[in-house]
Amino acid sequence: MSQFSPFFNRWLSRIGPDQVVAILTELVDAGAVFAVDADGKVLFWSKGAEKLFGQTADMVLGKSCAEALGCDQGQDPCGLAELGSIKAQSVQVKRLSGGRLTCQRTARAFFDAQGQFAGALEFLHPQVSAETLVGKQGNSESFHGILSRDPAMLEAIKIIRNVAETEATVLIRGESGTGKELVARALHQESPRRHRPFLAINCAALSPNLLESELFGHVKGAFTGAVRNHAGLFTRAHGGTLFLDEVAELPLELQAKLLRVLQEQSFIPVGGDSAISVDVRIIAATHRSLREEVKAGRFREDLMYRLRVVPVFLPPLRERRLDVNLLLWHQINLHNLHGKRHVDSIAPEAMRRLLDHAWPGNVRELINVVEYAFAVGRGNELRLDDLPPEFREPKPLAAFDAVPTISRTRNKHEAELIRDALKMANGNLEAAASYAGMSRVTFWRKRKKYNIEGYD
Ligand SMILES: Nc1ncnc2c1ncn2[C@@H]1O[C@H](COP(=O)(O)OP(=O)(O)OP(=O)(O)O)[C@@H](O)[C@H]1O
């Protein structure tokens, strides 16, 4: 279905397309939008771009965008004409006030009827450093947007760093929302293929026929509705990386076809009669055990060995309590940067619930919980009332826990919270109190109460 109503064009010409573009780009908060022509000369420079880079439209219109932005990325700064689109690329741009600013760049090229590059639309927004985002957290680990302090995650990051330079096929295992796609993107960014496309597909999301056509493409007339040739993801990802999410859901017939690409770097599009050669690195991901799938006869053993040359495991968030705090503050600081509310502490009861939560949706769920808290709550403290209902319901007591009193349960959580906070802060009381969402005095008092020593 078209995204436009049949009346859109009429409405657009009544208001004026330039007005609409200017207003639309103003709605994109904290970001710069600009358009360039086929020679890379700036045609449009949004108010956000003026604010972000300190250069008014008068100063840059008609200049080359490389000059306007002061990009220092060599001869072909973008590669955009060749790639067609760029997503979340990290670039350094100059500010009129001096200094350079690291931005995330997303861009889309346009091509005329002859297939010639006809210009592009770009969106840049400041990439805030992990240090700024995690604020009080101190020595955090951030790798291409992956934040973690958990030893198992850091191990996974180490493997990714080492394996990125090679051509090895990587299989990422982890529950939904643990960051499998983020990790796959990081691997691509670290690899020599970083200037080529990174494409992703969820193998569970499409019917077998559609999936085959999406992956391998089809030729005109291959089936009813195939009115023109369609280049599949393997063709479009040539030279780059293809991320196959939920690979365990790939139907058996497509598993054979995938195995062939991995072995021979070639495939035949649907309805085609000749093989196309490609150079694509595969990163696959699954929340299931491929071994179990092989045992159940649902997955080819030979393909499993081809895919899991380097297996990487991402633990669920409930097993990474150190990360819950880190990611919470990361998200809070993101909202603090852009929203009206400024949160600088978390009420102890809220913190306890957050640390105790099972996080079935992992980091994705945590992101949503913070968004919820900023939408419904007010004030500088994030309180229990700001959390979604499932956090506020009283927790059922475990059957084997012979009638523990509420205060005993609470004390246990509180003591654990204090121990965790001290560990995270390497014994620094000020930082530990802030992790636990308590004032320094309360933290000190509770620490005494539970007789928690060390870390000084
Ligand atoms: N360690 C992390 N640090 C920062 N952000 C993270 C981290 N892990 C995940 N995220 C964020 O959580 C969200 C979910 O991550 P992602 O899509 O990579 O998970 P996934 O495992 O691929 O999920 P699914 O299997 O459901 O597709 C994304 O917004 C991602 O940026």
Automatic annotation (TrEMBL):
<dbReference type="InterPro" id="IPR025662">
    <property type="entry name" value="Sigma_54_int_dom_ATP-bd_1"/>
</dbReference>
<dbReference type="InterPro" id="IPR058031">
    <property type="entry name" value="AAA_lid_NorR"/>
</dbReference>
<dbReference type="InterPro" id="IPR013767">
    <property type="entry name" value="PAS_fold"/>
</dbReference>
<keyword id="KW-0804">Transcription</keyword>
<dbReference type="InterPro" id="IPR025944">
    <property type="entry name" value="Sigma_54_int_dom_CS"/>
</dbReference>
<dbReference type="InterPro" id="IPR003593">
    <property type="entry name" value="AAA+_ATPase"/>
</dbReference>
<dbReference type="InterPro" id="IPR035965">
    <property type="entry name" value="PAS-like_dom_sf"/>
</dbReference>
<keyword id="KW-0067">ATP-binding</keyword>
<protein>
    <submittedName>
        <fullName>Sigma 54-interacting transcriptional regulator</fullName>
    </submittedName>
</protein>
<keyword id="KW-0238">DNA-binding</keyword>
<dbReference type="InterPro" id="IPR000014">
    <property type="entry name" value="PAS"/>
</dbReference>
<keyword id="KW-0547">Nucleotide-binding</keyword>
<dbReference type="Pfam" id="PF00989">
    <property type="entry name" value="PAS"/>
</dbReference>
<dbReference type="Pfam" id="PF00158">
    <property type="entry name" value="Sigma54_activat"/>
</dbReference>
<dbReference type="InterPro" id="IPR002197">
    <property type="entry name" value="HTH_Fis"/>
</dbReference>
<dbReference type="InterPro" id="IPR027417">
    <property type="entry name" value="P-loop_NTPase"/>
</dbReference>
<keyword id="KW-0805">Transcription regulation</keyword>
<dbReference type="InterPro" id="IPR025943">
    <property type="entry name" value="Sigma_54_int_dom_ATP-bd_2"/>
</dbReference>
<dbReference type="Pfam" id="PF25601">
    <property type="entry name" value="AAA_lid_14"/>
</dbReference>
<feature type="domain" description="PAS">
    <location>
        <begin position="20"/>
        <end position="64"/>
    </location>
</feature>
<feature type="domain" description="Sigma-54 factor interaction">
    <location>
        <begin position="146"/>
        <end position="375"/>
    </location>
</feature>
<dbReference type="InterPro" id="IPR009057">
    <property type="entry name" value="Homeodomain-like_sf"/>
</dbReference>
<dbReference type="InterPro" id="IPR002078">
    <property type="entry name" value="Sigma_54_int"/>
</dbReference>
<dbReference type="Pfam" id="PF02954">
    <property type="entry name" value="HTH_8"/>
</dbReference>
